[in-house]
Write a structure and sequence with these properties.
Length: 209
């Protein structure tokens, strides 16, 4: 499944069709496609995990320790933003593949809110179920390190990352380590939601056009 998603992402990336219009968060079509695409992924995940105990397969349980989970999440968040800051310095915001275009249109707030829910909430849930949920569980048989690194690589490939590969890998490694230390998917979803949510809010709050 990850290979199919990666093929689509890299195919668009190298064909030159991956340019993101500055107002893409203000199109209803963006939200609809996002919900449909990730909805299909969610259904496929549930089909693959059919017959397995879902709570254990996707680590849908309380963390072993909430204080530890928050400490690790804080460290992972710092690492994510440090890597992002370094990329901003080296290549600039406009050259990044995963950057959300800085744009605001007060006449299309409804479409923006729909996209914010899709990108900052639904997408993190589905991606974490895939990478730190089922993917981590399958790789865990080979050891925690393999599961952390393997799920991070899958995460990067699923995003079709090239220029942003270092940043996406750092983010994925942080999320994987959080999953390993906490034993739960919930802190991973929370951290992923924060990263995506901040990106969406910042793009609207600091428009360049």
């Amino acid at each position: 499944m990850i290979s199919v998603i990666a093929t689509i992402g890299y195919g668009a990336r190298f064909s030159g069709d991956s340019a993101t219009p500055p107002d893409f968060l203000f199109h209803w079509s963006t939200a609809i496609v996002t919900f449909l695409f990730d909805g299909i992924i969610l259904l496929l995940l549930l089909l693959i995990a059919r017959g397995l105990p879902l709570r254990d397969t996707f680590a849908l349980r309380r963390p072993l320790s909430w204080p530890t989970a928050w400490k690790v999440a804080g460290g992972a968040l710092v690492a994510t933003y440090a890597a992002s800051f370094m990329e901003e310095i080296v290549i600039g915001h406009g050259s990044r593949e995963q950057a959300v275009p800085q744009f605001w249109d007060p006449t299309r707030v409804d479409a923006f809110l729909a996209n914010a829910i899709a990108i900052a909430l639904f997408v993190p849930i589905v991606e974490e179920l895939a990478c730190r949920g089922l993917g981590f569980r399958l790789l865990e048989a080979y050891g925690q390190r393999v599961a952390i690194v393997g799920s991070a690589v899958a995460f990067a490939l699923a995003h079709g990352a090239v220029i942003d590969l270092p940043w996406v890998l750092v983010t994925g490694l942080g999320l994987g380590y959080l999953r390993s230390r906490s034993g739960s998917l919930y802190p991973c979803i929370a951290l992923h939601t924060i990263v995506n949510g901040v990106a969406v809010v910042a793009a609207a709050a600091l428009p360049s056009g």
